[in-house]
Specification:
The protein is built from nine helices and eight strands. By secondary structure, it is an alpha/beta fold.
């Protein structure tokens, strides 16, 4: 099989029937009731006949906590398929926002599993170098607490809170300690979002005002923060003109994007 960006095709340029797409959402998923990129994912199912699954991660929990959930979810999926006498599948991960960091934590917790079963990780507007806005305000958590009624494990209200795991300092520490373990596990791809204030979602207008970014950004993640470290030899798929919540917008071409 030959990998072609960004999915995984066989020599006849058709989607193979042994690949499952795993979609990992970010912090804003619960705030918007799981609606981000839903139509794009449904297109993958209907138009390409691809199996798409989503681990039950928590918007309010740390990347380490969610990493455990992701890893166990994939292992359970493999066991369930084996028991049902279905063909073994490997996984290609689409990870939006903090979901990209969650996926990296999952890989570090079982490197052998990741190397054997993960075909690639595609991050979408992920704070791979940390979300600088968290140095000034924890906007996502504040909005989460006001709007959503998603149950939050007690540990995620204190020790395993989401935001501290994706600050620039936390990500720097993560790569210093785990980066070498990750580089050869799978193929890495990233795509970035960038938007002006005038065309952004009202919530992203607020985050831009709070953060006072000095570089192009999508309201949550700057362009430089949305790229993997050079040691990963990741493929940068470029920049889409969109804010961080583009997956909610009807005018955003989700079907074509996915």
């Amino acid at each position: 099989n030959i990998p072609i960006i960004p999915l995984y095709y066989n020599r006849t340029n058709e989607m193979p029937n042994d690949v499952t797409i795993v979609y990992i959402p970010g912090i804003y998923n619960a705030i918007f009731e799981g609606r981000i990129f839903t139509s794009g994912l449904e297109t993958l199912r209907k138009n390409l006949g691809v199996r798409v699954i989503t681990p039950p991660v928590y918007s309010a929990c740390s990347s380490k906590y969610n990493g455990d959930i992701i890893l166990n979810f994939l292992k359970d999926d493999m066991i369930a398929r084996e028991k049902a006498k279905l063909d073994k599948h490997r996984y290609f991960i689409f990870a939006y926002s903090k979901g990209g960091v969650d996926a990296l934590y999952a890989f570090t917790q079982d490197k052998s599993f990741a190397k054997e079963n993960i075909l690639g990780l595609m991050t979408i507007a992920s704070p791979l170098q940390g979300a600088g806005i968290l140095n000034k305000s924890d906007v996502p958590l504040a909005v989460f607490n006001l709007i959503t009624d998603e149950p939050v494990p007690e540990v995620c209200k204190k020790k395993e809170k989401a935001s501290p795991s994706i600050t620039p300092t936390a990500m720097l520490d993560f790569y210093e300690n785990k980066g070498k373990d990750l580089t050869a596990l799978t193929r890495y791809y990233s795509i970035s979002f960038s938007s002006g204030v005038a065309v952004s979602h009202y919530l992203m207008k607020a985050t831009k005002m709070i953060a006072q970014y000095k570089e192009a950004n999508d309201g949550v993640v700057t362009l430089s923060s949305s790229h993997f470290p050079k040691s990963f030899r990741a493929i940068d798929l470029g920049v889409v003109t969109a804010d961080h919540l583009a997956g909610l917008e009807k005018k955003f071409p989700q079907e074509a994007f996915m």
